[in-house]
Amino acid sequence: MGQEVTAGRNGALLVVGDVVTDVVARHQGPLAAGTDTAAAIRTLPGGAGANVACWAAHTGCADVRLLARVGVDAAAWHERELVAAGVRPRLVVDPTAPTGTVICLVDTSAAAERTFLTDSGASLRLEPADWSDGLLDGVARLHLSGYLLFTEPSRELAETALAAARRCGVPVSLDPASAGFLVRLGVDRFLAFAQRLDVLLPSRAEACLLTGLPDPVDAAAKLSRLVPLVVAKAGADGALVARSGGTPVRVPAAPAVPRDTTGAGDAFTGAFLAALLAGADPEKAAAEGCRAGAQAVQRVGGRPPCPDRP
């Protein structure tokens, strides 16, 4: 089991995860089967790992790095977008697979809930050969996107990165990423990996799925007996911070009127990790995460604003 590390350390945040192209379609009311549904459609850079990295940079982390895999078709565009967001990308260009694409269907009703159609493409073709222990030079925290666990090559890469971080004493965090994919992977397989982490950042639904408990408070407490620090993200209900089996502390959400909830959890994670690196305790870091999540849901897409753009 990992050891909880909360004190700030001078160093970088390395994110290993996914870069994808998001096609965001915002529609009003239910989709009309067999005919047209009017929608406002935008093509935007996305991917859970890339979003986390961008939000960490946006909320004050001075050195954010990203390892990801993209296709030839959009590699240059994604690199420009990441650099503009303050991230230092190391993008492996896949010679055969296209960049991953996610179609985000966003209902523009009050909750702004979204449904994803995902073609992972090159994003989950990261493999151990893409890793070098030198990637950890100067790194104070490693964050893994949970999507890495859902294909064999990228799961092996995640194992390689985790083992290297453990040898170097670098704390490791992970966001489970998708309740649907967790079901396909298997809870037991996920938990076998998770027990070596220092920080786990599930959604409320993922925490309940991983424990079989209906109450997210109980679920967060149970998970924190496996992983020293668990932060369960609960959207409009804020977050739950649980340490080593203790009673979880509820951190309230920041007020927001949502337009698009895509990437809100990534925004939370990025801001949370940036705050930990700056020396905040987990509760204060979670409050920063809630503020970033509130900012995210008021924007279309999963990324923060770039300095030179609205």
UniProtKB/TrEMBL annotation:
<keyword id="KW-0418">Kinase</keyword>
<protein>
    <submittedName>
        <fullName>Sugar kinase</fullName>
    </submittedName>
</protein>
<dbReference type="InterPro" id="IPR029056">
    <property type="entry name" value="Ribokinase-like"/>
</dbReference>
<dbReference type="InterPro" id="IPR011611">
    <property type="entry name" value="PfkB_dom"/>
</dbReference>
<feature type="domain" description="Carbohydrate kinase PfkB">
    <location>
        <begin position="13"/>
        <end position="307"/>
    </location>
</feature>
<dbReference type="GO" id="GO:0016301">
    <property type="term" value="F:kinase activity"/>
</dbReference>
<keyword id="KW-0808">Transferase</keyword>
<dbReference type="Pfam" id="PF00294">
    <property type="entry name" value="PfkB"/>
</dbReference>
<dbReference type="InterPro" id="IPR002173">
    <property type="entry name" value="Carboh/pur_kinase_PfkB_CS"/>
</dbReference>
